[in-house]
Amino acid sequence: MPTPSSRYLRTAFVVGLFVILCIGGFTYKHISELSQTSKVVKDNYSLRSELELIISNLKDAEIGHRGFLLTHDSLFLNPYNESLQKITNNLSRLDTLIVPNGEQVEKLKELKSDIASRFKNFDKSFSLAKDDAILSQDLLFLLHEGEIKMDRIRADITEMLELEQRLLIHNQEINEEKIGLTPLLFYGLLIVTLVILLLAYFKMTKDLKVLKENNVELEIFEKLTKQSEIVSNTSTWVWYIEENEFEFSDNLYRLVGEEPQSFEPTLENFYKYVHEEDINHLGQQVNMMMREEELPFTTYRVVHKDGTIRHLKAYSKLMDDTEGDKKMFGVTIDITSEVENYRIIEQRNQELERTNKELSAFNYVASHDLQEPLRKIQTFMSRLEAKEKDRISESGQLYIQRMKSASARMRMLIEDLLQYSRTNTSEKEYLKTNMNMLLEHAKTELLDSIEEKQAKIICDDLPTMEVISFQIQQLFINLISNSLKYSKEDVPPIIEITHEEVRSRDVEQIKESLYKFHHKITFKDNGIGFEQTYAEKIFLLFNRLHGKSEYSGTGIGLAICKKIVENHKGVIIAEGKPNIGATFIIYLPFLK
Amino acid sequence: MKLLLKFDFTKVCNTVLKQKLEAHQFNYQQTAFGEIELMDKVSEEQLKLFHEDINSFGIEVVEDPKKIVIQKIKDVIVDMVFNEKDINVKTSVYLSEQLEENYNYLSNLFSEMTYTSIENFIILQKIEYTKILLTNEDLSLTEIAFKLNYSSVAHLSKQFKNTTGITPSAFQRIIAKRKQIN
Amino acid sequence: MNSDYINIALADDDEDDRLFFTEAFEELKIKSKVLLFKDGIELMEYLNDSNNTLPNLLFLDLNMPKKSGLECLKDIKSAKRLRGMAIAIYSTSASEEDIENTFVKGANVYIKKPNDFEKLKKVLSEVVTTNWQYHTSGLNKDNFLLRL
């Protein structure tokens, strides 16, 4: 990561620099102390030499003094005066060399007073010596005194020298310490610097490596993106908000029918390709994008220079850069094929709907209009029977009977067909209905038959859901009436209606459903049942398992049931066991 | 010269009747072709005069005692049903008590004169009352079944459907929709 | 019912149905006067003429040319003078919703044309009788709903 890395580097450098400066500071202090120390040593030596000079100068003064005493030659006073001067100089230099508050100050004072008294002694002896040629008693005394004073001065000086020596040694020791430390510090400084340099080097090499790898990945990625854009007919673009500049990907150029980067990526240039009818709308959307910093899905058409029209869909969102520059990343897709497909599907749908409507209208009208003449036939037949019975022969009456049953059958067929046509769902409303109510109505409709067969209907509580009421009612009627019709002879039919909620994925037949849950309603009877092999056939239109003479029926009832269940996006399954009974399971999806 | 005439008897009778009623200043309502209801009380004298007047036109007031009995039977039944009378005895017993006649006689007379049986009439009244309770009082079918002493809701439902041909709920629905339109 | 005429009217474009209808009433021995109309226009012309006697009971076929049964029903229910007439829709068949719809629009009776003459007689008799009951027993005509 470049950013944290540069921070690292910066910190490392700052720390390193700080360390170096610290160490440098320390080193400098050491060196200045060192020079200080050597100055001290130098002063020490100067002091010592001054002290030694004092002694030698004193000795010169003594020689001069003795010489004068011996010869009374004023020639010998010169060295004496010179020495005096020299000693004065020495003392004044000593003042400068002495550490103000040290022990030496006291000692110097003593020395100074001793020297002063010695010179007093010299002066006394000079004044005495002038008078006599021989050593008088006083003179001898003075000379002795002088010797004693000289000793004292020597002692002072020796003391001072010793002290200086001690000081020097002390200094030396410190010096040695410091000298000992300095190379260490230098090495330390050097090592730290080296270490920092090394660390920096390694870090930078590592970062560089990562950057290189990233770079390679990015290059691959860029190539892939370019390819994928071409293959999937998509393109990308960037709008740099602050600078109001655009960047178009190669494929965006291709989407408008041009070569990549063949013109400058600006809005004006792009608008040249937009269909004249869509320019206003697109312009508005783009303006809004510039205000709101968001472009919702926008579709528009572009016209290639060869006249081809393509449909494009654009979308863009604000991408926050870490550096703070605001950018918008956009995607533009060519959706021409989707639009085409949609149009085709729409068309087909409309056609289908139309055909459907026509079919069901035909169905309805046919069934309805067929009923009229049939009814007439039946009514006239019954009139014939009633009025002309006596005048018709036996065979004639038989024929009439046959005609009656044939027309009765025809009527049933037409009624059932009519019912079938009514299960067409267009213009039917799905309303929330309590299915218990529909079941009750169904039972009421079939009340006579139920009583006649002494049937028992046991039912669970049924749910409330959105259904086409009359269709579900018809469904229940058809199923119950079937159970009543196909009951065992002399066995009162027992019909059990149960309900439970199931998860679609737990049931084979509905696991592909888009709905998660289904209502499972089961109609179970104890009638004659049927062979399981016919379980799917029985739902076919006009399919019957029994002859007309055994059981009446048109073969439409269950087809109607299936259609109704399918209208409600459900599934109906039949299970039969010959002589035991039949079970019809209805699955109806619902949203929980 | 000859004129062939065609008579619209209904029109003739109605016109005569209307004239006569107005002449006698009766406040009346024609409830059926052969039935007039006098809204105000009329004295015997006035009635007698009226009778005589219309008699000359061939119109007779029927004072069939049988009819009076029929009306009484109807009144008793209506009262029984609409006032929710709690009868502890069989309807036949109750009727014969109220009218002080043998039930068989009443039954036969009723059928002869009205072409329906007493039982049917009672059922009809009950169903009518049910209709009123459903629409005006907003009672549930269960409550009504209880009120009218039906053994169960199903029984009432069945009778309703048998009598009218539609279910009680369909009836309610239709009445509600009619109200919506108006 | 007593020995008085009841005025019946039928509007039906079908000749055979008109024939059945009149024959049925003849055999019923109910004292009735049956008026027949071929289509809705004829019917409304008759009804709107205030000189004409209004029928006690009107049987109305739904599928008629020029003016359908439902249109006639609408006109009748909007006319103050005609509103009180008992109307029976007499039709071949219709879905449950359509039947309910005719009741909602103001019909009192809905009859599905039977395919048997005896049934027809029975049905017509029931309608007439029930209508008479409403007539004579002071029952609320608005609640007169009958489906056969």
From TrEMBL, chain A:
Its EC number is 2.7.13.3. The chain crosses the membrane at residues 12-31, 184-202. It catalyses: ATP + protein L-histidine = ADP + protein N-phospho-L-histidine. Residues 365-592 form the Histidine kinase domain. It holds the Pfam family CHASE3. SUPFAM superfamilies: ATPase domain of HSP90 chaperone/DNA topoisomerase II/histidine kinase, Homodimeric domain of signal transducing histidine kinase, PYP-like sensor domain (PAS domain). InterPro entries: CHASE3 (IPR007891), HATPase_C_sf (IPR036890), HATPase_dom (IPR003594), His_kinase_dom (IPR005467), HisK_dim/P_dom (IPR003661), HisK_dim/P_sf (IPR036097), PAS-like_dom_sf (IPR035965), PAS_fold_3 (IPR013655). This is histidine kinase. It comes from Winogradskyella damuponensis.
From TrEMBL, chain B:
PANTHER family: ARAC-FAMILY TRANSCRIPTIONAL REGULATOR, HTH-TYPE TRANSCRIPTIONAL ACTIVATOR RHAS. The keyword Transcription applies. PROSITE patterns: HTH_ARAC_FAMILY_1, HTH_ARAC_FAMILY_2. This is HTH araC/xylS-type domain-containing protein. Gene3D superfamilies: Homeodomain-like. Residues 95-174 form the HTH araC/xylS-type domain. It holds the Pfam family HTH_18. Keywords: DNA-binding, Transcription, Transcription regulation. It comes from Winogradskyella damuponensis.
Automatic annotation (TrEMBL), chain C:
Pfam families: Response_reg. Residues 7-128 form the Response regulatory domain. PROSITE patterns: RESPONSE_REGULATORY (PS50110). The keyword Heme does not apply. The keyword Phosphoprotein applies. The modification 4-aspartylphosphate is found at residue 61. Keywords: Phosphoprotein. This is Response regulator. It comes from Winogradskyella damuponensis.
